[in-house]
Each structure stands twice: as C-alpha cells, then as structure tokens.
Amino acid sequence: MNKTLTLTLLLAGVVTATAAFGQTPATDPDTGLPVVQPFRFPASPAVAPFWAKRVTGYLTTTDGTRLRYAVLLPRATGRVPVILNLHGYDAGSIGGLAYRQRQTAQNLELDRRLLEAGFAVMGVNTAGTGCSEGSLEYIRPQLGRHGADAVEFAAAQAWSDGRVGMAGSSYGGASQLATALNRPPHLRAIAPGMVLTDYREALAPGGVPQPGFITPFRLIFRTYWQDLVAATAKEEGDEACLRQVERNLDAEERSQSIMHLVTSHPLRDATMGSHDFGRDLHRIDVPVLSMEAFQDQAVTARGGHYQSLLDPAKVWLVQTNGSHDLYTVAAFQDTVVRFLDRFVRDQPNGFERDTPRTTVWMELADPVDGGAARRAAATPAWEVKRGSITAGDVSVRTFHLGAGGRLGETLAPGAADGFVAPGTGVAVNDLGGNAFWGPLPADWRQTQLAYTSAPLVEDMMVYGPASADLWVAATAGDADLQVTVTEVRPDGQEMYVQRGWLRLSNRTLDTARSTPLRPVHLEDPDRLQPVLPGRPVLARVEVNKMGHYFRKGSRLRVWIDTPAQTGGLVFDTFSLQQRVHVLHTATYDSVLRFGVLRDVRGPAAPAACGRVLMQPCRPDPLAATP
C-alpha cells in the first residue's frame, strides 16, 4: 500500500473505503450517524527484512530541530552511498513494524532494488510530522534547509561513504528539489517525480478553490502518524516518539493545519508565496532525473514546468499519460537505479549514452484489469525519444472557435454561444481503478459548450501545455471556467485528453513568463480584475501539459463548462447564477493554441479504449447532433 492509493481511497469517502475492506462503520450512540474514521490499511502479507541492518535515531538540524530518521543498510560490506527520502508521512520509521507489513508511504520495491544495488536507504520525517520535532511548514524554505542538513548528516555517518542521492515522488519529490536548491556539498543527484513546487497550484489551480485536496491530505498525515509511526514506536518501546506524535497531531489540528493556511490566505499573498519555491530552482546544479504524469489526479502536471529552469545538460525527463502513482512502474525504477548508480556511485554504466534526454511514454496502459499492483507492470504502447526539447522543436497550431460549434484553422464568425454557470460539470476520476468519465447531465446543452474540428488530414503529436484564449462576457460578473480537450476518434469514441481551469477575476497575466502556449497568471490580490456584467474580457486558460497523438481522421474537440471533479481535484466554484457567453468574431476571436512536436510518427492503430491510464473514452455524445 502506498500513499497514492490511500489518497485515492480517501477521495472515495472515508466510510466507503473502510467498508470496502470488510469493516462495518461504527455508529455514534449520540447522533446515530456513522463515525468517520481515518482510513485503515488492509491486511497485507508481511515482508521479511531485505536489509542487513537497521539504524534509527534523531538528527539535529542547524536551527536546532530534532528529526527522526531510519536507515536500512545493504548486505554489502564497508561504507556505502546513501539514498535519502524526506517527507512528512513515515519516512523516519522505515523498516519498522508497519513497513514490514507493506503499510508505508515508502516505495518498498524501489527500496529493495536500491539495497540490492549496494545503496543504503535513509528516511527522514520532516519537522512537525511523525515523531520529528519542530513546526510543520509543508514546502516553505525550511523543507530545503532541513533536507540539506539531512544530506550532510548522512554523508558524515560511519556507514556512509559520503556520497548522497535522493529519490521518491510527491512530497518526497518536492523535498528533493527544495533540498537541491540549497546545494548541500555531498548531494550528488536527485530523482524527483510528481512534484508540487507551489502549494497554490494544488489548492486553487487557475485561481479556482479546490478544497478536495485539504481533507484527504490531512487524513493521510494523521493516519500515517497515529497508526503507522506509532505502531513502529510501540514495537520499539520509543515513548518519546509516541509523545511527539501526540503533540504533532494536536498541532496539526490547532495551529499547523493546511486548513488554516487556506482560510487565512486564500490568495497569493506573501504567506502563500512563501510556499512557492519554483522560481528558485535554477540554483540546482546536480543531475536530475524527473518523472511527471500528464493527468496527475493529485497535484496536476503544472509543477513540472520547473525543468525549463535547469541546465539541460544535467536533466533527463520521463513523461507519461496517467496518474500520480506511476513512479512505481518497474521500467522507471530500472532507470532510477541506473541513474543513481551513475551519478551517486560514479559508475560508468553508459547512462548518458543510452538514455534519451526526453522520453515520452505514449498510451501507457494496464496489462490487466484492476488491482493496486497493476501500476508496476504498466507499459507504454510506444515511446517518443528526443534530446532536450526546446521551444524551437514545438510549433504553435491555432484553432478558432466558430459558429455552429466549429473548431477550425480559420475564423467562422457568428453570434456568441452561451451556457449557464455554475452548471453541472462532468467528472473525470480515478478511484483505485482505471479512470471513468461521468455521464453528461440531462441539461448539458444548457450548461456546456462544445467545439469540434473537421477530421484531421494528418497525424499530429500535441505536446506540452495549451492555451485556450477565450473572449467571454458574463451576465452577472465573476465566473469559473473549465476547458476540456478531447479526441473524437473515427471509431465513434471520444477520448479524454486534458483540462484546465480559470477564475475570470484571476486573469491578469505575468507577461514576463507567459508564452503563446502557456498563460501564467499573477494571482496577486492587488492585481485581481473585476468582471463587469456583459463586458467582454480575454480569459487565457492554461490547459495542463499533455502528450497525445491525434491520428489522421480523428477530430479535435474542446468543451467549456463549470469546473468539475477531476481525480482528487474537487472544486468550489463561485458566481451568481448567470450565462457566460463565448464570443467568436473578427474583433473577439476565441482560439485554442496547441504545441505540436515535429517529426513524430506513431503506430497507425490507436490504443484500445478503456485501457489507457487516466484517458477514458465514451461514445461520442454529439454523434447524432447535426
């Protein structure tokens, strides 16, 4: 079990998840209501220790904070290189009781591979989590400073040869970037996946509040501490750890909860800005192996834009369709071990020679239906392999929204189209299985707009972010928009590709960082722009990164409606009931701009619907519409 599956199940509903594992929810005797309990891990077969020795203790950071750590040593003799994991779940308890029962946020199979390769694996709990002391600050600068302290501590231990790398995803991926920008002397390389470099992008993508992140994230934290960390501490008789767990649980509820951050700082003020370290990542000077999933249902792929700040001579990138947990894929773990062997251990294993700078896994699919273990065996149908992809490798292709729901390469002007907002957006989700696509609401013709292109005359590899530059006029002021890109296939199926969101008052652009394909919004409280009823405004909506191969004969479609649940993203939309009009005239030309990666030739036959991860299909709902 890993934290991603835990998050997925929590999003399905805590009581539902508990019942799914054969447990009947308890009933509160006073209210008669089901007791909402933290998620309980299902029973798993115990794993025998695959390490030679386990070392535990506390390290003290330069600011005096005591952090809990645990180290698994390989069977190799002598001093060994160290791979560090730093996160807020159970990193400081690896190798303990819960870990041996496969109840851990650690990537247990990767840990095994690293130990077999002769690395030590070290886990450290961040401040204010598990049984580490200090204040929980999520991804503020403290995270990187403490990470640098942990690197130097690991390098100085008697069992360490002084060479340290980092690996892991999600929280453990963000911590690598935060650590590396501090340039600790003994850090050799990092392998981050599915990162979040800016909390604002998880809490309010495009400025639209997304409270679906908050409660599951809090419950995950608390479950790991009070169940898994505490179980290991009890086994070891560590009363100090147990007391610290209680203090951390109390602090998370009273003063250090992410709930306080969201309610006290709903916009990008100075405090929220301190949870964004993305702009400083140009300071990283070690080799980086990065992984990202385009349809990441937990944090989206927006954090991956940091890669453009790094020295391209030191970066290798693996990108794929799919979900937040794909760091577990066996093929990628092979690459991680070779990367760390080359740059942490300094082994001349040919990594630079035979590993492309950019590898895009196309149409990654499950080999079997269902089951949590399926992700490790997922394989792409084919791959795009390139050097470092620059802006010069991507051409901009523009489609104009036009009358009659047309999407064309020339403008077809006509009267504005309108939809009711807020309406019932259509969910795209992943609850422990392949993604599903919710049905269209009965009144979808009132609450959604769709624009569809003519059949493509040649194949097209869409790559990177897209920009929906929409001229809109709302009848009652501010509104939230969702833009969904799909492929309408010749077989009559419509396949989900990607989404983006924007609150109209958040439309002010950071002109220094925005490009034709990626609008970057300031989100500064002083730069919010009111929306006057009936007055057209230009809303540039960032559609998140994608890597999708549109084949000849397919049609491109864009839907515009109210933000809807997308994986773990559950939106809290805002506006008076109104009509939002999308304009398409010579004066107000609404367009969709894609990046097209040149010279890509994929297989003629598309992947089977229903197997491509996080890209579900449905029968084309407009097939019978004139």
UniProtKB/TrEMBL annotation:
It comes from the Bacteria. InterPro entries: AB_hydrolase_fold, CocE/Ser_esterase, Galactose-bd-like_sf, Xaa-Pro-like_dom, Xaa-Pro_dipept_C. NCBIfam families: CocE_NonD. This is X-Pro dipeptidyl-peptidase. SUPFAM superfamilies: alpha/beta-Hydrolases (SSF53474), Galactose-binding domain-like (SSF49785). Pfam families: Peptidase_S15, PepX_C. One of its GO terms (molecular function) is dipeptidyl-peptidase activity. Keywords: Hydrolase. The keyword Metal-binding does not apply. It comes from Piscinibacter gummiphilus.
